[in-house]
């Protein structure tokens, strides 16, 4: 049996993870992470953290395991929240949950609990890990959770082999319903607790208010792009196994670049850096038969470009590009070399159904071309690629 530290959040998933490990006979230690103290822009109110701590401690007491608290708020601010502000200021849309896992839960947290001399760290993530041997060397496979509706492998797409070697995912083979049932049968205080939402460890936020802690509001124009624009700015057609020229490849994977004269001014906004591709809410422009969506932002000219209707061509793109320095392979032994390609399953956001596409590796980075156009490809988000259930790698979408 092993000594295992469980990151106990007060939620039902980590609670059942701790209970399962204890039932299996492991020496389990519960540790609650405090990562955020401010309440500016947070919608749940200031008492949620105290409630989570109380529930986590009650769960540990019910199971019969020791309970500790570590404060990682300084590390969280410098390595996650400051990153979030920098990305929005640059006109990109970050995914702080992915960085939180890489930088906090499986790095700073692991260092902070070193005094417990644990063999493993456990979390309540809905994903699985498998150890294999290849040429006499151990490799760890990061696999999707059995519950496809709750699979959280996307959020772990930046983990390394060293991090995977030390982690276990006790609920990865269970569905959410099974986890709830186990929690109820065990009488855990978190059995009926709702799932958390919003930014990892911060909670559900009013994003513009949260961002205005560091990013200044600045009035600008909202420009609506008509459908006719794309008749004069066509993209190359995508063909299976076609050998694209460098210009074709760049054109397919690049977003449309709009100018103010390409559309009509239809409203005002409070700062282009507060908006993201595909966003519908918060534009405050009415009088349309169909809703308006953000299809582009220009932070230098402080312009937000929008389009009317779900089927507007400006919402869809066939490909994307990831810079060489922003590519991460969970399985470095399967890394593609420049000039190689692979047909894989991909997703560009959490809970998106897997999409078929081709990953082409070049000296400058990775080009991804999808079989079908994708809605809302967003710079700053993570594109993730799979071979079957296994997550092989990921990268930050550059454009």
The major pleated sheet works out as: 9 strands, antiparallel
In the CATH hierarchy, what is the superfamily of the domain at 3-211?
HUPs
Number of strands: 18
Q: Looking at CATH, which topology of the domain at 3-211 would you report?
A: Rossmann fold
Give the termini distance in whole angstroms: 48 Å
Radius of gyration, Cα only, in angstroms? 23 Å
Content of β-strand: 25-35%
Quaternary state, please?
A: single chain
Can you name the CATH architecture of the domain at 3-211? 3-Layer(aba) Sandwich
Low-confidence stretches: none
Number of helices: 8
Relative helix content: 10-25%
Order of helices and strands: EHEHEHHEEEHEHHEHEEEEEEEEEE
Arithmetic mean pLDDT: 91
Shape: globular
The first-level CATH class name of the domain at 3-211: Alpha Beta
Helix-and-strand structural type: alpha/beta
